[in-house]
Amino acid sequence: MKNILMLHGVNHNMFGKRDPKQYGTVTLAEIDAQIHALGRELGVSVDSYQTNHEGTMCERIHQAFTDHVDAVMINAGAWTHYSYAIRDALAILTVPIVEIHMSNIHAREAFRHHSVFAEIVKGQICGFGVDSYLLGLRAAVSAIHSAK
Predict the structure, then answer these.
(1) Is 64 within a domain?
(2) Active centre residues (catalytic)
(3) Is residue 84 part of a domain?
(4) 60 is a domain residue
């Protein structure tokens, strides 16, 4: 069974409470439940991880390298726009990386239009709410199969 790591970034533990206009009222636990259910349908295992600490996120990415995960999905939140530390950790990986955002980062504040991860990820999916995660998982599984 292929293993995919889902990385949730800063403030994502507050989904359901934080800015419902942008993110809706779905909680992180509900998002993870949907991802894991789709993973079972697609025949992959999904491990979800969330942290509000940049260094801890880097360490989890390093562990993904050591564990030989088959793909990584990441919604790094605000770190997307400025964390070169997380970008450099992701660049160590040799597997497909899919960047995900619930909101359309290109239709929001100007500082959100740029992703420091863009050059190293397989692709980005944004603007579809929870479906961004589900589309991202499908893209990750497809990327794993096309990498054979």
Answers:
(1) no
(2) 23, 101
(3) yes
(4) no
The residue type found at 25 is: T
Share of residues in the chain with pLDDT > 70 (%) = 93
What's the predicted TM-score (pTM) here? 0.93
List CB contacts of 26: < 8 A, sequence separation 6 or more.
Answer: 15, 16, 129, 130
Number of domains in the chain: 1
Question: Structural domain of residue 121, as residue ranges?
Answer: 2-52+69-146
- Burial string for 100-134 (b: 16+ CB within 10 Å, else e) reads bbbbebeeeeeebeebbbeeebbebbbebebebbb
Question: Do the domain assignments include residue 61?
Answer: no
Tokens of 117: 């991860």
The larger pLDDT score, comparing residue 30 to residue 20, is at 30
CB neighbour class for 75 (10 Å; exposed up to 12, middle 13-18, buried from 19): buried
In this prediction, residue 23 has a pLDDT band, given cuts at 50, 70 and 90, of: low
